[in-house]
Every structure is written in structure tokens, then in C-alpha cells.
Specification:
CATH class of the largest domain: Alpha Beta
Bound molecules: manganese (II) ion
Number of strands: 17
Strand content: 25-35%
Distance between the termini: 19 Å
């Protein structure tokens, strides 16, 4: 791992969050918010690690504005963005209530508290019992496990009267790999997997509903899955650009239109049909209930726990 680049990406993410949070107002076009975030990331010396997710109310994740999007900010808005420096990612999210709604505020607070408690649990375990490169010995057992973290998240959210979204989870991060290796659940999944040293995103999702999301419409957020050569020249040009510019990190149709023009949308469609790209679905709460999210990235290295995006 490149500690210096991981820390740098985290610092940029923190600055961007502090820059954008006070600027977001009801009825601001989502396109403007995404542009401000992504421009600021570049201005500070990073690159967007994935398209800015601006998901409203019952859409839990994977809504990014299209190039001609007309949606205005409203409701309970989740702002989830990433920064990378040479493929080392900082992944962070916050939620805003744009309706002055008490339930929204409580739902957001519960996701914040769940994240705080999860981070506290990890820090406590590491500071009290670190016993080697990769493990923590405490009372004879290796801790913390990912299920204990999930249990803390679940209990915090349930004690506030809400449910965690159990089929969304935090994740390990590797270079140019946003979702790698370990999963950090938002519930006690009873899997006693030790949280080893590494880079992780923790992201509790809270909901007033039952606690599950399903796949919605295609999001226009893509990821390269196969480099096989497509037949059309347009598609080949778009593919080469994607390999060069984004590698294995997610990108979106809005970025492709901006860089290569509106005609490149045909190339994108051909690449999808040819099996080169995965088009992520939007993730929508199954009962149509509201969802809030808070996320930070943590680096655990040499027995030390650093919240890179805080
Ligand atoms: Mn995120
Ligand atoms: Mn994440």
C-alpha cells in the first residue's frame, strides 16, 4: 500500500466535503453539484475515483446525473464521492435533509452514530490489543471481526428506531479496485472474519423501511470488465479511452460525453452489448422507504487506525 497517496486522497476528500456541504441547497441541479465536486477534486490534485452518487430518498445508491439530467436536489439527499491518487482511493459520503424534516434528520443522525461507533470499536480494539503485523489479540480471541463491526452498526441503528440496509455494505479497497476482498456488513452476519490491516470503507445505511434494496434502472455508471476488441471503430475508440483514463475504476456516460462527444454514447452502448462493460443498476429500497448513508475510509497500518477522510 502507498500510505502517502492514501492519506493525500483522504485529505482531498475531506476538503471537498467541507467545500460542498454548505453549498448544497434545495432545487440546485444535481448536475451542478456533481460538477462542483468533481472539479474541486481535480483542482486539489486528485481524480474522481467514481462518478459522484447523488441519490434521493428511496434510492440508496448509484444515481449519478446523466449529461442532460434535469433533476433538482430535494428530499433526503445522499452525496457519495471518491478521490483517487494513482489508484489509491478515498471513499466518503454524507446525507443532507433538504426538507427540514425531523425524521430525515434522525435517520441521518443514526447513520452518523453507527459509523462513529464502528470506528470507535475498531480503534479501541487496535489500541488495546495489537500484537503483531496483522492481528489483534484480546481475551484469547482475534478482534475486531467484521461481524462485531456489523453488530455495532446494527444495534446503533435499531436503538434509534430504524433498520440498517443489510444488503449494502462497506468494503476493502485496493489500488484501482474500489470493492476488493473483505466486506464490512451493516449487520451481525455471524462471520468471524478478523479485520486485518488494510484500507476499508465503512458505510452504514439507515432506512425507515425493512432494510433491503433491490436493483432499479440502469445507472449509467459503468465499469470495465473485459478488454476484448469490439467490431465498430467508434466502440474501439471509446474502449481505448476507458482503459487509458479509468482503468478498472467506475466511470459514467456523462464523463464520456464530456470527453468524447455525444456520438460516443453509441460506442458505449456497443461496448455494453459486447460484454466489455458492466452498467450498474440503481439500488432502490424495496418498500420505497427513505434511506440515509454516512461513509468514511479507514487505513489500518502498523497497529494504527487512521480515518483518512475525516
Ligand atoms: Mn462511497
Ligand atoms: Mn464505499
Amino acid at each position: 500500500m502507498n500510505t502517502q497517496k492514501i492519506i493525500q486522497a483522504g485529505k482531498i476528500a475531506k476538503q471537498v466535503r467541507e467545500f460542498i456541504e454548505p453549498l448544497i441547497k434545495k432545487d440546485m441541479p444535481l448536475l451542478d453539484i456533481a460538477k462542483k465536486i468533481e472539479d474541486k477534486i481535480k483542482e486539489l490534485g486528485g481524480e474522481p475515483a467514481f462518478p459522484t452518487n447523488l441519490s434521493i430518498n428511496n434510492i440508496a445508491a448509484h444515481y449519478t446525473p446523466s449529461h442532460d439530467d434535469k433533476t433538482l436536489a430535494h428530499g433526503l439527499l445522499k452525496v457519495d464521492f471518491g478521490v483517487h491518487v494513482d489508484g489509491w482511493v478515498a471513499d466518503t459520503a454524507f446525507s443532507i435533509d433538504l426538507e427540514n424534516n425531523e425524521e430525515n434528520k434522525k435517520l441521518i443522525q443514526a447513520s452518523k452514530d453507527a459509523l462513529d461507533n464502528a470506528i470507535k470499536l475498531i480503534k479501541d480494539n487496535y489500541s488495546q490489543g495489537h500484537s503483531g503485523e496483522n492481528s489483534v489479540q484480546k481475551g484469547g480471541a482475534l478482534k475486531p471481526t467484521t461481524s462485531e463491526i456489523g453488530k455495532t452498526i446494527q444495534e446503533t441503528i435499531e436503538s434509534a428506531g430504524f433498520s440498517p440496509v443489510i444488503n449494502l455494505s462497506g468494503h476493502e479497497i485496493k489500488q484501482y479496485e474500489l470493492h476488493a476482498g473483505l466486506t464490512i456488513p451493516n449487520m451481525d452476519n455471524k462471520k468471524n472474519i478478523l479485520l486485518k490491516e488494510g484500507l476499508y470503507a465503512i458505510e452504514p445505511f439507515t432506512t425507515t423501511g425493512n432494510g433491503k434494496v433491490h436493483d432499479g434502472s440502469p445507472s449509467g455508471i459503468y465499469m470495465l470488465v473485459d478488454e476484448k476488441t469490439p467490431r465498430s471503430q467508434t466502440a474501439r475508440e471509446v474502449l481505448n479511452f476507458i482503459i487509458e483514463k479509468y482503468s478498472t475504476l467506475p466511470f459514467c456516460s456523462r464523463w464520456i460525453v464530456k470527453e468524447l462527444g455525444i456520438k460516443s454514447l453509441f460506442g458505449l452502448k456497443q461496448l455494453e452489448d459486447n460484454g466489455n462493460l458492466h452498467n450498474f443498476p440503481q439500488l432502490v429500497e424495496i418498500q420505497g422507504s427513505k434511506v440515509a448513508q454516512t461513509e468514511h475510509t479507514i487505513l489500518i497500518e502498523k497497529g494504527e487506525v487512521i480515518v483518512t477522510t475525516e
